C-alpha cells in the first residue's frame, strides 16, 4: 500500500474560518491504492411508442439533482423526491397520451427508468446489490423504512437480475372508487395506487430486480404514495452503492447477475 505525505500547507477556507494546517508527520492514504478507479455509472435512454415519447438521463453517482416533466404534476413530485432521496441525478421528459389517461405515461416512465438503472449498473461489480431494512423489532433504524406522518412504508430491493414485484398492504386502496370531490381536491387520489403499482412493476421488469413494497399502516393517499417512493429511493440508494470490500467482484456466487 502506498502512502503519500504533504508538507505543511494552508487549505483554502470555504467558511471564513482560520485555514487548517496539515502536518508533514501525518500520512495520508492514497485512495487509488485502496480500490480501483470507479467508472462513471450513467445511462441515457430514449423510448418512443404510439402512446409515449420518453427521454431519460441518469447518473447513479449524482447528488440528487433532477429535472422532471411527465405532464402529471403529482408524478413529477414523486420522481423528484425519488432522485433526491436516492441521491441520483435524473432528467426525465415524457410526452404521453394524457388525453386518454395517465396509465401509459406512468407505466412507460417506469420502463424507461428501470432500463436506465440496468444500463448504468452494468455488470454490477462491487455494488452492495441489496437495499435492505432492519430487524422487525427495531423499526426506527432501517434504511428502507420511511415514515410519512401516520404512514409507515417498507421497501426492500435486490438487483438480482430476476424481476419480481411484491405489493402488500395496499389492495384495498388500489380499487378505491374516486369520488368527484377526491378528484378535484387531491391529485394523489386521482393518481391512484393502481398507477403507482404499474410504475413499480414496470421498473422491476426492466431493472431486473426483486422489489418488495409494503404499507405497514396509514390511510392518507398522498402520504402513502410519498412514503412508498421515498422508501424505494432509500432502498435503491443502499443497493447501488459500491462496497470497497468487494471492489471489482460480482456480488453473487454464480459470478454473474
Tell me what you see in this structure:
With about 260 residues, the chain is α+β, with helices and mostly antiparallel strands. The chain folds into two domains: about 1-35, no CATH class; about 40-245, Ribosomal Protein S5, domain 2. The chain contains eight helices and eleven strands. Strands 7, 8, 9, 10 and 11 form a five-stranded mixed beta sheet that branches. A hairpin with a 3-residue loop joins β3 (about 40-50) and β4 (about 50-60). It is globular and about 55 Å long. The protein starts with a strand and ends in a 17-residue tail after the last helix. Residues about 1-15, about 15-25, about 25-35 and about 140 have low confidence and may be disordered.
In short:
The protein has 257 residues and is of the alpha+beta class.
